[in-house]
Design brief:
34% of the residues lie in helices and 23% in strands. By secondary structure, it is of the alpha+beta class. It folds into 2 domains: 83 residues, Phosphorylase Kinase, domain 1; 102 residues, Transferase(Phosphotransferase), domain 1 (Orthogonal Bundle). Strands 3-4-5-7-6 form a 5-stranded antiparallel sheet. It has a 3-stranded antiparallel sheet with strand order 8-9-10. It binds adenosine-5'-diphosphate and magnesium ion.
């Protein structure tokens, strides 16, 4: 895999090009994620300024990835990880597409985070883009590097509050334009939401 990862080119921290063997499937604050065509694996390639996170995330995955609520990790290299491809969508995409988020799904995320805590780790950065719903209805939590931080992260508890206070109400819409969700995220970051 290393040879392909070396063909992923960044200019500063923005993606400039990548090999044909890879298909872009997502990116976040620390990395770009590609599906390796004709396999059930993805490669998470960290931006040049985030290279050190790869090793941290690999260590966390080594401890949790046999659990059914997390993807498996197959390989950890310099600045990249090879992870099981989760066939499905993030909870963020569920909101955009109007796919209902059920209470069972919320309980599954709680179960994942309880397991993480039982290992002495500190589940953090668990938000809509880091939780996936598989095509057969199971939950997988991804993006686990920040589980090593000491600081408390309120994001999952806040999302749960919003779920029970608003989303679960019968007349509350279950589908939202992407732009609307992004605005809500910005307001949340600025602590301007009544949560
Ligand atoms: N194992 C995976 N299977 C399928 N899609 C994934 C997988 N890992 C990440 N993704 C997609 O790529 C996006 C970015 O990955 P993530 O690990 O959250 O990166 P970052 O650390 O930069 O936030 C996710 O929001 C998701 O859409
Ligand atoms: Mg992420």
């Amino acid at each position: 895999m290393k040879a392909f990862v070396e063909q992923v080119i960044f200019h500063n921290d923005s993606l400039a090009s990548y090999p044909d063997r890879f298909e872009w499937i997502g990116q976040g604050r620390s990395a770009v994620v590609f599906k390796c065509k004709e396999t059930n694996r993805v490669v998470k390639v960290f931006y040049p300024s985030c290279q050190a996170i790869a090793e941290v995330e690999a260590d966390v995955y080594q401890r949790i990835s046999k659990h059914d609520l997390f993807p498996e990790v197959y390989e950890a290299g310099e600045g990249y990880l090879v992870i099981e491809y989760v066939t499905g969508r993030t909870l963020y995409d569920c909101l955009v597409e109007g796919i209902p988020i059920t209470e069972d799904m919320i309980h599954e995320v709680d179960r994942a985070l309880q397991f993480v805590r039982s290992l002495g780790l500190n589940p953090s950065d668990t938000h809509l883009k880091n939780i996936m719903l598989t095509e057969d209805g199971r939950i997988k939590v991804i993006d686990v590097a920040r589980f090593t931080q000491e600081e408390e992260c309120p994001q999952w508890e806040d999302l749960k509050k919003a779920y029970y206070m608003y989303y679960q109400r019968r007349y509350f819409p279950k589908k939202y334009p992407r732009l609307f969700i992004e605005c809500v995220i910005q307001l949340y970051r600025k602590r301007l939401l009544p949560i």
